[in-house]
Amino acid sequence: MMRQLPSLNGLRAFEAAGRHGSFTAAARELNVTQTAVSRLVRLLEDRLGFPLFRRHANALELTAQGQALLSGLTDAFDSITRLTESVTAMRSGPVLTVGVGPTLAITWLIPRLANFYRSYPDVEVRMATGGATRPVRDDWTCTIRRDTDALPGYNAERLFPSTVVPVCTPKLASTLRSPDDLRNATLIVVSDMPNEWPHWFEAAGLGFPLHPAGEVSFESNVMAMQAALDGVGVAIAQIPYVSDALAAGRLVAPFPIVAHTVGSWLLEYRAIRKEDPALLAFRAWLHQEADLARQVEIVLGRANTNGSARRSAGHPPRD
C-alpha cells in the first residue's frame, strides 16, 4: 500500500519551528529564508486541515495538534539520524572496539593510530570508555587498563608497567635543583589518585607529607596533564601519558626518578576473541608500541641513582 505522507520539507520546517518557537530560528537551522519556512508550514497546515501554530507578534504557540505532531516528529527525525549514522559507519573490513580510559586514549593511543592504519588499512578501530563500575563491556573486542590481574573470564597480556614521574614545563624545571625544591613548588594532584605523589616521594627519599607551597587538584588526569603543559605546576604522571610531550620537549622530567606502583597496563580480551582478525592485528601492533613506550622508562631510569625507586605500594588507580 502506498504511503500517503505530507511533504517532507513541510514536516522538517514545522519540526524546526516548533523546537525553536520561531520561523526565523528554524530558517537559520535549515539554511533557507524565514518566508520559505512560513510558507512550508502553511502548506502543511492546509494539507492536514488544522492549524499547528497560533501566530503571535513575537512568538509561535503550538496548538494541541501541533504539540502532538511535534513530539512524534522529533523522535522520528532522531531515529532517522541514528539509523543513517549506523549505516554510514558500516564497513566491509574488520572492526575492533577497544575500551580505554580517556587519558591514555588522548595522550598515547590516538596519536599512534595513524601508524596502525598505515600497517592495517582495512581494520576500523572504534574507541569506547567504561568507568569505575563497568570497566569492560561484552560488545568490546578488548580493553586496555591498569590492574594487577585480568578481569574474570578474560585473557590478559602485559603491555608496560605502571610507573610515575614528575613532569613540568622546561621553564619551571629550571627552578628545581633537587627533589627537595618541590616544597617550594605548586604540585598538581588528581583527586581520586592520592597515592601517586606519596609513592614518588618515597622513591626520591623525601618525607611525607611534603607540605608544598601550593597544591592544585583536578578530577581527571586529562585536566592535570593540560595544567602541567600550561605551566600551572608540577604534575605526577604515568609515563605513557607524557611520553610524547617529553619527546617533544613540551614537558621535562626535572628529576629522573621513576616510581613503580602496583599493577601494569594490560591488554585484556575474552578467549573466544583470540583469533579475531582485527584483534590479531591490533595485538601485534600494540605490543610493538608498548616496547617503544618502555624505552622512555629505561632512559629515565638510567639516571635514577635512588635504589628505592623500584617499589610496589598502594592500589592501582583508575584512568
UniProtKB/TrEMBL annotation:
<dbReference type="InterPro" id="IPR036388">
    <property type="entry name" value="WH-like_DNA-bd_sf"/>
</dbReference>
<dbReference type="InterPro" id="IPR058163">
    <property type="entry name" value="LysR-type_TF_proteobact-type"/>
</dbReference>
<protein>
    <submittedName>
        <fullName>LysR family transcriptional regulator</fullName>
    </submittedName>
</protein>
<keyword id="KW-0804">Transcription</keyword>
<dbReference type="GO" id="GO:0003700">
    <property type="term" value="F:DNA-binding transcription factor activity"/>
</dbReference>
<dbReference type="InterPro" id="IPR036390">
    <property type="entry name" value="WH_DNA-bd_sf"/>
</dbReference>
<dbReference type="Pfam" id="PF00126">
    <property type="entry name" value="HTH_1"/>
</dbReference>
<feature type="domain" description="HTH lysR-type">
    <location>
        <begin position="6"/>
        <end position="63"/>
    </location>
</feature>
<keyword id="KW-0238">DNA-binding</keyword>
<keyword id="KW-0805">Transcription regulation</keyword>
<dbReference type="GO" id="GO:0043565">
    <property type="term" value="F:sequence-specific DNA binding"/>
</dbReference>
<dbReference type="Pfam" id="PF03466">
    <property type="entry name" value="LysR_substrate"/>
</dbReference>
<comment type="similarity">
    <text>Belongs to the LysR transcriptional regulatory family.</text>
</comment>
<dbReference type="InterPro" id="IPR000847">
    <property type="entry name" value="LysR_HTH_N"/>
</dbReference>
<dbReference type="InterPro" id="IPR005119">
    <property type="entry name" value="LysR_subst-bd"/>
</dbReference>
<dbReference type="GO" id="GO:0006351">
    <property type="term" value="P:DNA-templated transcription"/>
</dbReference>
